[in-house]
Structures are given as structure tokens and as C-alpha cells.
Records
---
Amino acid sequence: MAVVAHQTIIDIQTELKAGSTTAAQIVSGFLQKVEANRHLNVFLEVFADDALAQAKRVDEKVKNGEPLGKLFGAVIAIKDNICYKQHKVSAGSKILEGFTSLYNSTVVERLLAEDAIIIGRTNCDEFAMGSSNENSAYGNVLNAQDNSRVPGGSSGGSAVAVQAGLCHASLGSDTGGSIRQPASFCGIVGLKPTYGRISRWGLIAYASSFDQIGPFTHSIEDAALITEVISGKDSYDSTSSSKEVPAYTQQLNFDRKARIAVFPSTLNSDGLNEEVKTATQNLLDELKADGHTVEEVKFELLDYLIATYYVLTTAEASSNLARFDGVHYGYRSPNASEMETVYKKSRTEGFGKEVKNRIMLGTFVLSSGYYDAYYSRAQKVRRILTNEILSILNQYDFILMPTSPTVAFKFGEKTENPVEMYLADIYTVLANLTGIPAISLPLAEDKQGLPIGIQLLAGKFEEAKLFAFSEKLMQIASVKKDTLTTPAE
Ligand code: GLN
């Protein structure tokens, strides 16, 4: 694939300050590119007028020498499950078709307060349930590198928006991998922050004890910058942490040797593609050669992750999605005549197949008689898992593993078999089950040039360390690429 140099937020801010471009020009450029890439089906709606108006405000501030926000000039797309006042939001579902948000999510408030420009809302799997973006009521998003392949899910639109250069960065949500897996499939950076680091106020809930918002970017510095802006305590979300938010962008220098844990069970797992395995092993060898400690640590719970995740998230989803009843929000069946048929028909017609599967599964695991066998047991496994992972992370700085067992797969490849689709999440759900932060880094490619993401996990609230070491890994990878592509003299 031709390597396209993408401008980072930091680059663009330097240019804006120097007066060599304007925010209005940047936004117009992106709008043209969005238009030229309609076939990718990335945006459900482009907020062209608002984005241009916001760009003009930024240009005025630059011209008048007024104080500028940390994200001035940054053009950001948001996943279609993040509320933006007076703008539509549908969570990729027919049941919310035509619904307009009455308020801003906290992340949107914080982006706008720092002079970011929001360009549009991106397509995603319905209610963020999926690993391939094949579950959206508004059609598939195509991977920009190979249109016959999925972009990953559920935040596929947000990933491709960045991959295809339709904005500087975007926000997604990650309940079980929905930021990291599409980042891996699209060759970009994606972060799932610590549970509680970022307010969930105004994020349409899927599984509330798992959901976190996070950024997609081309560079670590941009990911650090956006995370710095959107993190922190919020009185509207009681699960948001009051822990101070470090200046991540000022701490990107990792100047010591790291202690890295590797789980043999992850590298020997059945569905792992050979090239992804080799790429991970090569990176581990390079890290060892560079003096870092890389140690194998026994982790025998891998086989329990997917089952635990799908029992708990479907249980939470069945409760969260009860509010979509044909009365409060969005779609109401025109065929309904009295109360019961309003509920039944609106939900039957408004929800897609995967969402219905999960509501039924979640209702089942919560039902009396099965609650103890499934829901309570899964809660116990979650506790055991968390204790084990936190104790490993007391002894090691990071855990390293692939983000996904495969590169981007073809459309239709896994749709017939939901279990196979769920298994694609084997490496990502761990961070959500245990609440720790994890990042996917575009560090390798397979023989066809398809991106391979490597995942780095750290202890709770250790985003600063995660960014700093990621920066180091990205530098190693870019030096390697240069030496591979520079012809010998
Ligand atoms: N693929 C996972 C699921 O379908 C993760 C989704 C997500 O992180 N929102 O649940």
C-alpha cells in the first residue's frame, strides 16, 4: 500500500499559528475528501455547517491572538453513540432513527471547550454490538485499504474516518474491544482507557460496567492529547474517577527498561493467525535485544474470557436497552394499536438481529433459576480474573499480546457463526473485564500489507506509562520501516 503521511493535530496547530493555513481551509479539505469517499459509508451524517462555523471561530481567535484551547483546529469525528446537543444520534439502530440529542455528552463538552471541531457522526454496529461493522442498520463500513474486508467493529466508522484521512482523529467506545480491534484492522492507534478515567455521560449505554470512550489517532501524541482533554471527574457520572489527570503529552519519554509479561496461552491459542503470531514474537525479541525484561507468565483463564464477557455484557445490555420501548425515544411501530403492541412491535421492528439475540441471552442469564448458574458465576470469574491480572501488573509494567487473532477479515466470513465472531474478541475483552487501560499499536503488517495491531495493557490509571512506552514502540517500528524502504546506497 502507498504510504500516506497523515498530519497530526500537533502539526496542524503549528501551521495554524504560523498562518500558513486556516481552520476553515482544513475543514473544507476534509469535507471534500469525505464526499470523495462516500462509498466507504463512514459518516451517517456530516455536520458541515457547524464544523465550518466552529472553524471560523477558531480562525478568529488565532487572528486576534486570543487564548487557544488545547485542541484548536483539531477536526474530530464522533461515533454515532455519543450525544451532541441538537444533533441526531442513532447508535447505528433503526430504533433511534430521527432522534435528536437534547444535551451534550461530557466528552463533546470537553472537546468543544478546547476548540476542537466536530465534523460528523460515524457509522457503527447497532448499539456497539459487533466486531466487524456488519450489524449497523445503515449498512457496512468498508475498510479503506481493501474494500472487500471489514474495518472491525463496533467503532468501524470512527476507525476508517482516521484511516482514510477524513479527519485528524475520532472518538469511539470500547466495551470489549470496539476501539482497539478496528484500530488494529485499519493500521492506526486506538486506546481503551481505564474504566472510570473518562465520563460516560452522554454515551448510549451498552454494558455500563464495561463501556469506555477513547480516541483513534495516527500518533501517540495525539491520543495522549485527546485523552488529557476528555478525562477526569464528572458529577454526571458517578463511576468517573476523581484521580488527577496527568499531562500525558508532557510525559511521553520512557527512559528506563520495561518489565513485560507475556502469556504463553495467548500465543498458543487455536485461532491465532501464524503471521500475527510471528509479528508478536519478533517484537518481543526486539524488546529483549533492547534490554527490556520479557518474561513468560502463566495465565490459565484465557478460555473463560469470552464466556464471562458475553454473559455479563448481554445481562447489562438487556437492562440498558429496556428503555427503547417505542414510547420514550425514536421509532414507534405504525402497526401498533395499544400498549402491549407498541412495545412488542416497536422493538421487533426497531432492533436488528444481533441486538435481539443479545437481549434474549441477557434476559435468560438474569432470569430466576438461571441467575446463579450464569450471571453470579460470571461475576465471580470476573473477580478472580481481575485479582490475577492486577497482581501480575504489580510485578510487571505491561502485558503484551496481539490485539486480534487475525488481520481484517472479509465481509461475510464470520456472519454465519456468531461464536466464531465472538472469538475474534479473545484478546480485547480482558481489559474491559478487569477495568485496565489497553492500547492497540500499528506495529506490523502481514505479507499482503494488511495491518497487524499489537496490544499493550497496563495497570489501572497508568495511561501515562502506556503512552510513553507506546511512543517508544512506534519509534522502533518507524525506524524499521525506514530501513526496509530506504534503498541501499
Ligand atoms: N465485539 C464486542 C461485542 O460485540 C465488543 C463491542 C464493543 O467493544 N462495543 O460485544
---
Amino acid sequence: MPGKQPTILAHGGAGSDNAHSDGTDRACLIGLKLLQARTPVLEAVCQTVEILEDDPRFNAGTGSRKRSDGSVRMDAACMDSRRHFGAVSAIQHIKNPIHIARAVADSEYRLLAGEDAHRYALELGFKEMDMTRVESNAPGTDTVGAVVFDGEQFAAALSTGGTGGSRPGRVGDVPLIGCGLYAGEHGAVCATGHGESITLNLTAYRTYEMLGRGIVPQEALDTALGWFKDSQDIGLLIVSQKGHAGGSNRSMAWSTLSGD
Ligand code: ASP
């Protein structure tokens, strides 16, 4: 950039195989086309994440990992710079949790959880999905996310099957505003990796706050990565009017595209 060029970044999670960046490339291509067609930023970022949820190589939607008891629960969240925020937590049997988070953003609520979030999705007409096809409970993350800028507004979205093999009941950073993601007038940020550390660091909000102080995305990224120990995996995507940056202290499939 810098400037007003539509920009999108998408990731396949801290720890995801770089070889899977064809999946994040494809998501960026579709997301950029949506931005160029003047699709509102929240819609564009959620449709981008839908592409990643449908890619079984990533731990979200169709590719969600099992918890230690063999069950699957998913979290998703989205936010734009007009302060629309919505999230779902511990939802199951839904193909694209990101669209339920999007529906919550349009409602009077900010976060719906568990069976009641599932019921809400069915009431809205979303189809159930058989999650018994899920095969892996390998430890690790490989969750998905994206940030977008349409030249005026910013948005961020995240979706995850959580940490494979985790204790039932565990919820990470994804549905917590300012932890996994944040968007405002200065930019958009989404995080991936060790959810407990991301939450304790208020990672997305504190990174966003640096953008508000005029710090360029690459410097904000380097600073935020420094908040984490080597044992804690962390990846970030950032976009602001001053540019964009993405990176992780692990391998991470991620992509970016800009264009008028
Ligand atoms: N942060 C997610 C969680 O803790 C996982 C990830 O991003 O890889 O649930």
C-alpha cells in the first residue's frame, strides 16, 4: 500500500504447513474479488473464512479437530471497524460457524454459546453438518482467520476447532473480543496460536492500540510476537492505512493480496 487499496490477508493457523498456502491464496483471491465488488467488509471477511472452513486441511469447520473425548466444538468471531462484533463458542454440527458469528453481530447479542448457539443457527435456517467425519484429534492448531480493508473500513474474522486433544469445556481466545481479534478505525488484527497466552496478552487489542499510535504493521507485529515465549505458538495478521504484515514464530500458511 500504503493508502486506500483494497487489501486482504488470510491464514491457516500458527503451526500450519506453509505448503497449504494454496488454500489461503484461494481464499484471498475470492475475498479480494468481493471487496472489489463493494461487498461490505464484514461480509467479505466472513465469506473468506468460509472458504478456509471448507478446506479440510485446516482446523476449522469441516477440518475441525477432536477434543480429548472425541467430540468436536467450534468457536468463531468477526468484527468490523463500525463496531459490529459477533461470536459463537462451543458450537457443533454446523458447517460454517463464521456465518453464525456474523448473524450474532447483526443481533442484540455479542456471544452465543453451546447448545443454544446451535439452536439459534437452526432457527436462522443454517443446515446441520455431520461432524462424525472428523478424524483427527492430533494436538495442534492450524485454525483460520482473515483481515480485510476496502479502502475505508476494516474487518477481521476467525474460526477454529480449538486445540486438538484439549479438555472438553476449554475455550480459547477466538470468541473473546480484543484477544483473538479486533477491528477499529485504525485497522484490523487477528491472532492465531496458543489461545491461553493470546488471551492473557489481550493480543489483538494491544496490537491494534499500537496502530492507533501510528506504529506501522510490521513493527507492531514484531513487538507483539515478542510478548510470547518460544514455547507458545503465535501468529498475527495486521492491516492498517499504513500497510499490512503477517507472520508467526512457527510455520504458517498465510497469503495477502491487494488491488484496485
Ligand atoms: N487460538 C486458537 C485457540 O486457542 C487456536 C489457534 O489459533 O491455532 O483455540
